[in-house]
Amino acid sequence: MLSAYIIHLLILIGIYLILCLSLQLALGYTGLLNLGHIAFYAIGAYTSALLTLNGVPFIVSFLMAGIVSALFGYLLAFPTNKLKGDYLALATLGFTFVIYAIALNWTDLTNGALGLAGIPKPDLGILQIKSNASYLFFVSIIAVFSYAIINKIVKSPFGKVLEAIRDDELAVRTLGKNTFKIKSYSLAVSAFFAGIAGSLYAHYISFIDPSSFGFMQIIPILSIVIIGGIASLKGTVLATIVLVLLPEPLRFIGFSSSVVGPVRQIIYALVLLLILMYRPKGFYGKVSLE
Fold first, then answer.
1. Is the sign of the CA dihedral 240, 243, 244, 245 positive or negative?
2. Cβ neighbours of residue 239 closer than 8 Å, sequence gap 6 or more
3. Phi-psi region for residue 126, left (φ > 0), alpha (ψ -120 to 50) or beta?
4. Which of 219 and 96 is assigned the larger pLDDT?
């Protein structure tokens, strides 16, 4: 029983890690305060679930989850191009509410509040993933691959331009760079990996509904990125592990599931507040939030 519980936690850590690394690319390295990241996560989950439930092979559904999310990320860059800081945060937050409303009300497609049940486990052709242990292995491979790709991006010349845009977009524009195109690419890549994480979540839980992707779900993701440190992939990995495991002792104290959820959000908020007060750069951050 304990081993199954540990495997479950490790799977969640892997999924959250991909999701938070992708947000780090947009927020930490490009300076885009994107509160719509959970919407890309939802798009990926619903895309993959709907395709597989309609007979499309998992590998195709998995890739389409990332591609469709990336397309939405790229399109979101157009109406938000001129926005910065709080205004960008509000606009992307509005995008989250739009996707949530679609998932809730387009019942012919998403089944509304009843959600999508019976989402199958991944079938990779020669390999069928039926146990949680094998699913953990699969998620681990995708997480390592995602980390390697994002790390490659941020250390490339393109990544250096992203950091320059974060620090002084006007100066980068003065040097002749098309900052809009670069930011839209960053947002698309960030959304792609969020969609991949959404697909992994949907096929692991086997059931999704709009409540799985509400506004409150952005709090732990944003907390992980800030606590780990802005523009720090290493910090994101550490913060993901810490924040996923931190509330778990509550389950052994005797609290009901209806209490654990709200208390978890309170813990995230308190940790985030303490980090902002006493360590503005987070664990390994390169940029202060002060």
1. positive
2. 20, 223, 224, 225, 227, 228, 229, 282, 283
3. alpha
4. 96
Instruction: Tell me whether residue 126 is in a domain.
Output: yes
Q: Is residue 269 part of a domain?
A: no
The yes-or-no verdict on residue 278 having pLDDT over 90 is: no
Q: What are the φ and ψ backbone dihedral angles of 31, each rounded to 5 degrees? A: 80, 20
Are the C-beta atoms of residues 47 and 199 closer than 8 Å to each other?
yes
Whole-model pTM: value is 0.91
**Residue in 281, 81, 82, 98 with CA at minimum distance from that of residue 186:** 81
Q: Would residue 257 count as lying in a domain?
A: no
Residue 234: inside a domain, yes or no? no
Residue 32, SS3 per DSSP:
coil
Domain count, the chain: 1
The span from the CA of 214 to the CA of 112, in Å, is: 14
pLDDT higher than threshold 60 for residue 2: no
As given in the structure block, the two tokens for residue 185 are 């690419």
Q: Range of 52's domain?
A: 2-215
> What would you report as the CA-atom Rg of the chain, rounded to the nearest whole angstrom?
19
Positive/negative CA dihedral, 176, 178, 180, 184: negative
Among 85-94, 148-157, 275-284, the least confident range: 275-284
Reduced 3-state DSSP string for 121-180: CCECCCCECCCHHHHHHHHHHHHHHHHHHHHHHHHCHHHHHHHHHHHHHHHHHHCCCCHH
